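Continuing from yesterday's entry. The apo prediction looked reasonable, so today I'm repeating it with magnesium ion included to see how the binding region is handled. Same sequence as before; SMILES copied from the compound registry.
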Amino acid sequence: MNEPALLLRALRAALASVLRGKPEVIEKVLVAILAGGHVLLEDVPGVGKTTLAKAIARALGVRFTRVQFTPDLLPADITGSLVLNPEKGTFAFHKGPLFTNVLLADEINRASPRTQAALLEAMNEAQVTVDGETHPLVQPFLVLATQNPADYQGTYPLPEAQLDRFMVRLSIGYPDLDEELAMLYARRTSDPLDDVAMVCTQNELMELQGKTRAVEMKPLVGRYLLRIVDATRKDADLELGVSPRGSIAFFRAAQAHAFIAGRAYVSPEDLQATAESTLSHRVQMKSELRYAGKTGAQVITRIVRGVSVPT
Ligand SMILES: Nc1ncnc2c1ncn2[C@@H]1O[C@H](COP(=O)(O)OP(=O)(O)OP(=O)(O)O)[C@@H](O)[C@H]1O
Ligand SMILES: [Mg+2]
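Holo prediction written out below.
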């Protein structure tokens, strides 16, 4: 087996040891990590969101910071701010927790819209501007944000129009009975999270990301990608389709999916496999359909089925 395949296998095993019975979630997280995209984990309490994010940071062997988002968190609390040096009488920039490799933005919907906006801007531009001065973030920079959709009291759900800063949005869901039983026994004497070891260094991670970006996409497949995107822009169920920013994310996710499959080029199947998690949070459903319980994921699945596949 070649080296990337071994690294991926080790990463997968590390994550599977703390999140049981969710291989499909782990694959999507791997896609985002390789493609250098941010992840929004949106689910009810207690299904392993924080645990998964912590395990990712440990396994990757990079700098990790966790910020618990609360209503009183200010933008400067995450970006950093100018601090007076009383001896010299000058101001110097003190970096905030955004200056890290993996940022766990836990319960992001509990912070005020201003603080959320500061985070989303940094994610989009890989830099922060404080008092007119711009500071580049460190690379790689990966945000894993969690949001609890069931809990509306005292929260500010992320603005729909800004969800597209995340490459993928994932929900985890409950494990099946056998997996949950195995979880109970695994936790009898210790916390599996404590046993997650570093499986790849920062340089190895950046190398994997570089190889992912080099994965080819033939024009025929690129056009297939854009026909799916275009279908979201014309769909009768949607108010708003996927933007060019979304096309880029879709392209990168498909590259990562191909890379994980050990291919040097993207095939239509990579686009089909990544469409739902990369596109469903980038479209806006007509409100009457949303109230009727229809989801973006359902619409994306239908749209992908309706677009003819190049051969
Ligand atoms: N599929 C799973 N496999 C193994 N352990 C799990 C699984 N789901 C949940 N757990 C365990 O349940 C506990 C709660 O998980 P965690 O704190 O990560 O949840 P959370 O989704 O972040 O919840 P909250 O929204 O309340 O912050 C952890 O000890 C975690 O290991
Ligand atoms: Mg949590």
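Comparison notes:
- DSSP finds twelve helices and eleven strands in the chain.
- Residues 18-22, 45-51, 146, 148, 175, 183 surround adenosine-5'-triphosphate (ligand 1) (CB under 6 Å).
Will overlay with the apo model tomorrow.
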